[in-house]
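QA checklist item 7 of 12: single-chain prediction sanity check.
[x] sequence parsed
[x] length recorded as 237
[x] structure emitted
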Amino acid sequence: MKNPFRSYRRPVRSACGLAGRCVRQWFPQLMALAVTAAVISVIISGSLGVGDGIQSGLQRMASQRLGGIVGAVVGQEPFQKEFLQKLSSSLRKEVASGCGANLVPVIFTKITVERPMRSGQSRASTGATLLGCNQPSKLDFDIPTTASKGVQLSQRLVDLLDVQVGDSVILRVTERSVVPSDLPLGRRQGSSRSRRVVLSGILPSGSVGDFSISVTEPPAGVALVSLSLAEQLLDWP
């Protein structure tokens, strides 16, 4: 009677023979393992490449939106002159000690930019970010100083409003109030302040026209004006 558990393979008498027999017996499994390892390697390499691309894109976006800004002191109300003088004095001491720093006063808030009604075109408006700054070049934005009575709009706003240099636009800001908008006796009518100005220039993409301090929202578009004009529009002392 034959033993069913008896093997008729020739005995292995060397290490090379043992290796050869293992390769022949496990060849499909070894090939599958090699293919899997190659696929994992490709996926990891692709993920690293995508990660580097995302990091580079975020750095480029931050540079476009913030320019050379490395720190900001933000407040809901305008800072008093005494605070600015103290901060300027502190920065001058750091500059004297070898730590270069510039203090650039800026006003930024949400506004509405309007195109007045004209022949053949109705009134149009869009939301924007008002940026009041006398020397935007100090923020590492390559842009000339804004005229005291003019405004420079980002390319996105120019396209939405269909305006060109020399046209008049209206900058409108909603005045804040401690009274809630919905009252038991009726709805409060909101008030606003506005100023008609001339479009003196267009801010190209990738410059101060993309300025924003939010990394989660796309830039709404920038209306760049002088600091004094922003103060007049907001009625700030």
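[x] summary fact logged: The CA atoms of residues 43 and 49 lie 10 Å apart.
[ ] second reviewer sign-off
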